[in-house]
Amino acid sequence: MNKERRIKLSKITKALNKIMEEIEDIEEDEDEAFENLPDSIASSERGDQMTEFIALLNESRDDLESAIEKLEEVHTTEQAIG
Fold first, then answer.
1. Closest by CA position to 56, among listed 21, 31, 19
2. Which end of the chain has fewer CB atoms surrounding its CB within 10 Å, N or C?
């Protein structure tokens, strides 16, 4: 991999890390909002929706983290070879 592609890969990885942090912040905010709901709303359809959204955000963050790890592996392997 040439220098230009390594720089692009590094920028992409940094951007994805920032996005992952933003998703985590939203997930934490949504989780906190759910925790502060009265029991009557938390056990309603709205509460079920919120827990589903929280789970989807968590899954998205995990998937993104896995992608970042793979990109970092490419970068690290490339540095070791090149």
1. 31
2. C
Q: Angle, nearest 10°, between helix axes 3-35 and 45-81?
A: 160
The one-character DSSP state at 2 is: -
| The amino acid at 40 | S
39-80 pLDDT, tens digit each = 999 999 999 999 999 999 999 999 999 999 999 998 887 666
Burial class (CB in 10 A: 0-12, 13-18, 19+), 58: middle
Please report the DSSP string for 33-54 in residue order. Answer: HHHTS-HHHHTSHHHHHHHHHH
CA-atom Rg of the chain in angstroms: 18
- Specify the DSSP class assigned to residue 82: -
Q: Say what the pTM is.
A: 0.83
